[in-house]
Amino acid sequence: MSPDYERLIGRAVTDKKFRDDLLADPEGSVKGSGLSLSADELKQLKESVDRIKADLTADQIDQRFGGVSAGGYWS
Length: 75
What we know:
Blueprint: H1 3-14, H2 16-24, H3 26-33, H4 39-55, H5 58-65
Helix pairs in contact: 1-2, 2-3
């Protein structure tokens, strides 16, 4: 996993707007983020997003990932 992929995941966990954008348009969000993912990482991200959207409701996504504030503390 590249450092940019790790940064992208970290940002998705801490930034609700970015997470929502990522779930709606993974490729566009990556391009707009200034981060660079390999073709394999982008494919993996898209597959992960599809699984998350198939398995979880929006409320469950927020419960699972929304517990981290911008300061990095569990609320």
